[in-house]
Backbone:
């Protein structure tokens, strides 16, 4: 029997989730595992924890402006901070589009997620509006009209709410948040531990 | 000419600073470097960032109760969460004692810091009061009366205020916070990057 997938909770608005998204599938594959990507609305968790969007916190903002490109260089992936007016990304449309695609074609959904992450965190696109998400999805073969309709579909809206609620009930309060056989790991800086956990089966 | 020391800013109340404190000197020594330990009052930075003591944040508290012992096991060091009534540690007395000893015997100051970290994060001692710090310091050969006097010394009090202010001006907002030749690294989960930075001289 195949082992259950690693779960990768993220919000497109999280720069560390973007960084982790460039590594998580390859990391899991080294241990014969797949990854289920799970978009969620981090803002709902922030209401409980009192957290604020990372790049808006005094002192921390200055550090992150150094840490994020530094970590991106270390990982060998591109990174560009968004225009201040475009942060945080309101990721509702992109997250709903992901869930809609996932139901019929999980691989395509993941390609969309990667395109959204890259569009926002590298190309500096404003992806808060459904039309912009449709534009990013079109080159992947996703019909814009169908995507725009899905984003307004009450069932999809509810699914994202439910997935966010489930995430919070499972203790997710930040992104990326990764579960390996139920074991929670928070942050791009836990990827080494995730890999060790997979290699050793815990410690 | 000897290279300048790595700077290790910490608050005794930070569990991740405790974990990092068990590794930082050995890590630096592998690269021929020394470490200057710099206690500070993290609460002053928290006033600017709006952060709250880690173990008091909903959702995050549950995660930390899992992450901290897990990381301690990985590092092979003991860890025990303090009684809720004893967290956060009011680290004024211990921090002042450190500065007082450092002026004449930096190695002894570091041994005191290690004893305070261990006393609080392993033995569960309540080290918020000066008398309790004096008790922990006595086996190291520190005369209790002299330590208690130093903790009330206006010059020492001012020195801790100044060191905290300097830390904040340099962008310190959490602990541990490590500077390697001016390059800032926040968190026990940046120790691998600190080591890489030392090995490669940056990237």
Residues:
């Amino acid at each position: 029997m195949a082992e259950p997938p690693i779960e990768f909770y993220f919000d497109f608005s999280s720069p560390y989730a973007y960084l982790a998204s460039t590594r998580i599938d390859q990391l899991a594959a080294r241990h014969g595992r797949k990854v289920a990507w799970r978009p969620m609305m981090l803002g709902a968790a922030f209401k409980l924890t009192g957290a604020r969007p990372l790049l808006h916190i005094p002192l921390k903002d200055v550090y992150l402006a150094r840490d994020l490109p530094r970590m991106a260089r270390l990982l060998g992936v591109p990174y560009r901070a968004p225009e201040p007016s475009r942060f945080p990304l309101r990721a509702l449309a992109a997250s709903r589009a992901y869930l809609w695609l996932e139901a019929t074609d999980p691989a395509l959904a993941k390609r969309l997620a990667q395109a959204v992450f890259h569009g926002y965190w590298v190309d500096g696109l404003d992806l808060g509006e459904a039309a912009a998400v449709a534009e990013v999805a079109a080159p992947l073969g996703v019909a814009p009209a169908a995507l725009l309709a899905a984003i307004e579909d009450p069932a999809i809206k509810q699914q994202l709410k439910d997935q966010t609620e489930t995430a919070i009930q499972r203790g997710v309060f930040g992104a990326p948040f990764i579960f390996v056989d139920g074991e929670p790991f928070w942050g791009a800086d836990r990827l080494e531990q995730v890999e060790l956990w997979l290699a050793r089966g815990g410690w």
Notes: Chain A has one domain: 6-200. The longest strand of chain A covers residues 6-10. The mean pLDDT of chain A is 96. Chain A is about 55% helix and 10% strand.
